[in-house]
TrEMBL record:
Transmembrane segments: none annotated. InterPro entries: NTF2-like_dom_sf. Keywords: Hydrolase, Signal. SUPFAM superfamilies: NTF2-like. Gene3D superfamilies: 3.10.450.50. It comes from the Bacteria. GO terms for molecular function: hydrolase activity. Residues 1-22 form the signal peptide. This is Phosphoribosyl-AMP cyclohydrolase.
Length: 211
């Protein structure tokens, strides 16, 4: 797997911003950032209790990606069997995303009216629908899918506390047909229990030029 350290100016800015979430400032003072609808930023002292000091490896990123894909498939399976898929999705978000750690930057694929999901409830709405505040959401995870495959173009983890992955992932519809190709950028931090949590997630359909 190749690791790229140049050519990602936008990602570099994101990388540095996220690094501030998990690193203690030299003078011990945390910076408070106001984000409408997002969780309040933690002080540096609080961050020290929430985040691990261990570096993030590429292998951990790949494993976190597999867990994310398996979680999407699992939500769909519960939905297909008539189970409590909302509960399953809530547990998935709690496990995979860092909404309880601080701000999460989440821009999902199939969102055009309210593209950004800075809160737990907003993310849950995207995955399973049913939230009147987000009427466009039909429930991405309950289409459902039988497989999710990540294909990384690169992983940047030279900051140690933050890792960023970019590439394509492919969703196999349970109803049959071709895999759905989607572009992604994920940023990960590591919590105090050594679990990778998503701090930023942006995905979109590939550009389709007019014929």
């Amino acid at each position: 797997m190749k690791v790229f350290f140049s050519g990602f100016n936008v990602l570099a800015a994101l990388f540095l911003a996220l690094g501030a979430m998990s690193c203690t400032s030299p003078n011990g003072n945390g910076t408070v950032v106001q984000n409408t609808g997002a969780a309040p930023q933690k002080s540096s002292e609080e961050n020290a209790l929430l985040y691990s000091d261990e570096c993030i490896s590429e292998l951990e990123v790949v494993e976190a990606q597999k867990q994310w894909g398996d979680g999407i498939v699992r939500i769909g399976n519960v939905f297909s069997k008539g189970g409590d898929y909302s509960k399953e999705a809530a547990e998935f978000i709690q496990e995979m995303y860092g909404y309880d750690l601080g701000s999460v930057l989440f821009k999902p694929t199939l969102a055009s009216e309210r593209q950004f999901r800075p809160s737990f409830d907003a993310a849950l709405s995207y995955f399973v629908g049913g939230n009147d505040a987000y009427p466009e959401d039909k429930g991405f995870a309950i289409k459902p899918y039988t497989n999710v495959k990540f294909e990384n173009i690169g992983i940047i983890n030279n900051n140690c506390r933050v890792a960023i992955a970019m590439g394509n992932y492919f969703f196999t519809p349970a109803a049959g047909g071709d895999d759905v190709k989607v572009e992604y950028t994920f940023a990960y931090v590591k919590d105090k229990n050594g679990k990778l949590r998503i701090a930023a997630h942006q995905s979109s359909l590939p550009y389709a030029p007019n014929p």
